[in-house]
Amino acid sequence: MPKQFSAIDSRLLVEAFDYQLPSDLIAQTPLLDRGASRLLVVDRQSGTLAHTAIRDLAEWLTPGDLLVANNSRVIPARLQGTRADTGGRVELLLLRQEQDGYWSALAKPSRRLRPGARIMLTPKTGFGTGLPAAAITIAERRLRGEVLVRFDDASQLTLERFGTVPLPPYISDALADEERYQTVYATEQGSAAAPTAGLHFTEELLSHLRTRGIDWAEVTLHVGLDTFRPVTVDRVADHVIHREWCSVGDDVAHRVAEVKRGGHRVVAVGTTAARALETLGRHWTSGALGGMSGLTDIFITPGFAWQVVDAMLTNFHLPKSSLIMMVSALAGLDLTRRAYAAAIAERYRFYSFGDAMLVR
Fold first, then answer.
1. 329, 25 in Cβ contact below 8 A?
2. What are phi and psi of 12, to 5 degrees?
3. What CATH number labels 3-74+177-359?
4. 12-46 tens-digit pLDDT
């Protein structure tokens, strides 16, 4: 059995990925300049740490390296409505699309929602005049407040009229411009949360990277709100990782293979791009060629045998989360702990609107 398909080390405890973060280091708003973020460079071979800026990213890459980013765009996934039968208020957070017109969602309150219940959506400010009403139907009840809903009209226009972009639970400030929670290259609608490592990129930085011989490619992974769900078990091996839909085109798969054959590095822009790329690696291991698309349940923890990703640009993640486990799988647990301690000591900004770390 290939190492990447072997069981997760049963001795690995979730507690190993805990750390204490002062609350004032949680970035509540994005910087005015996307490119002004700080960058902590973590060198896996030497174990050294370097403090720099995201605008200097090219200095830490080599011509011929391939940056691979997630081009998924955050949808207005937070919906407000009222029950058609009782008039009671309901809030829905769309998690992922399961088929045309059907979405899994978190409902609050959910206890009395039954299959067949109708919810009339409330237009957001500025979208309520002269436009037809919209409704959804509860198709199925699931565990932990999750439901399957069916839209009467599942077009993007419906989401634009009735939905707002959901921010992570640790951000309390309202966002003045929802585009600041999108990457500048986001094109594929479908995420309920942003692939935040990409928020640092500006058109100027992308152009500078190209002039320095750094290549660029894009994959798609639709990020679900499950990414914020805490790991509540004691052993990492007992955690059931969430599934997300991803796609890697044939052209990108071929470019990745060429970069690997040429001895250059594949640099994932964020954990979501890394998850898509390693799902591609699993696809290749099965004997398939070219790209892939579908749901991924890959769980990357220390001991994982990386097949595709050589380096990763990522933000700083929540304690005991599956994302910090993935970073530790690449950098090593001890070096990750040291990097996070240094970032806290130097007062880096953490989480979605925070600073970045390059593991190389």
1. no
2. -75, 120
3. 3.40.1780.10
4. 999 999 999 999 999 999 999 999 999 999 999 99
